[in-house]
Every structure is written in structure tokens, then in C-alpha cells.
Design goal:
The chain starts with a helix and ends with a strand. It has a four-stranded parallel beta sheet, sandwiched between helices. The protein has a two-stranded antiparallel ribbon with strand order 3-4. α4 crosses α5. It has a domain of 160 residues: Rossmann fold, CATH 3.40.50. Helices cover 35% and strands 16% of the residues. By secondary structure, it is α/β, with parallel strands linked by helices.
Length: 230
Amino acid sequence: MLLADIGMLLFPHHCTVCGAKLQKSEKSLCTPCLRRLPKTHFSPTGLNPMMQRFVAYPAVRHATAYFFYTHGNAYTRLITEAKYNDHPAVGRYLARMAAGELESTGFFDGIDVILPVPLSVRRKRHRGYNQSEWISRGIADVTGTPLDTQSLIRHTHNRTQTTMHRDERWQNVQGIFSVRHPARLAGKAVLLVDDVVTTGATLTSCVETLSHAVPDIHLSLFTLACTREE
């Protein structure tokens, strides 16, 4: 009973997308909305639109996103619930589905460790959780790959980027990350995980920080969602 009660707290009672009451067998999304999830269908190990954003960085070997994030679309609520509204299990559930679909493609082959994009201490304390950690746990549920939440840190509490323009977003994330004990990641194949890519500024800052601190690192990038913009 206790586990069931906790599950109801972590998951919304109604479909995150359309608001319909969920059946006992459904989580986060009703069956019709799940079927219509706007998946990217990116080739996970090819030069897909997500990978094209990071092609200038030799450390990045693969990059993919699970579904498209379109401003004003009801499916953006999945990110909002997972990120801001105390339903981080939504992100974990979607990540498990994504990982289950990606597992046979070779995307996770050779990955040594999963690194969630970190929040600042202040923001994590205020929010109560890091949504990227929950997404990472969803991937780990399927792959069994260990998480590392200590090596990559956000040492600066920067402003939230929700209402920022493109140039402001890039300026806002400059120099805000650092690597603790880089020797732990030396020569490792690392999966860097975040919730959504819009301009790519945050992930790019992480990639630059990791590449500089650990020159022989190999990176794969996964986000639940991405915009269609370049």
C-alpha cells in the first residue's frame, strides 16, 4: 500500500497531455496520447539533426533525443511536469521507454557511466530534485549502467533560461560547470543526459567543460526532447 501511495504522489492522476483520468495500467500518459507522442525517430548512431548540433566537438560520438519539443504543443507538459511540478517520475518513465527502444540500436554499447546535467545546489534545494537525474535513472533501469552525480558540477547559480532569447541563453551558461576529480572519467565512455535541448547552450557548455578537463573522454548525448530548430 505504501509503495502504491508513493507512486500516486510521484505520477500525475490524469494524463499529462490531455487531462483524461488515467487507468490503473497507465502512467503519465493515456494510451491514445502515448500513441501520438511526437517521437523524433532519429537514427541514434548516425548524423541526425541532434548530432549535427554537436558535430564540431570530436569528443561527441553519438547524440539523440526521444521526442520533439514544440512551443505551445500539449506534449511540452511532459517536460514541465517532470521539471517543475513535482512529478520527476514522469521523466523516469519516459526515459525507460526511450532506453527500451534504443537498447537494440547500439547507442548504449560501451557506455561506462551516466552523467546527468547538474543543477546548482540552490536550485536543487528549492526544486527538491534534479529532473536529469531521474531521467538518468530511467535509462539505468534498462541498461544497468551506473550513475555519477558527483563528477560534473554546476558551481554557479545562473538564472533560469525559460524566458531568455538565444544569445542570452549562451551567455548565461558560460563557465558555470566544472569537473571534480577528472581522472575518474579519463578514457571513459560517458552518457551525458538532460531533459530538453532548445538552443543547445547548456549541453554545449557541459561538452566543452568535460572535453577540456578530460581530453580522452568519449561522449554520447541523450535528451528526452529537442526542438526542431537548428
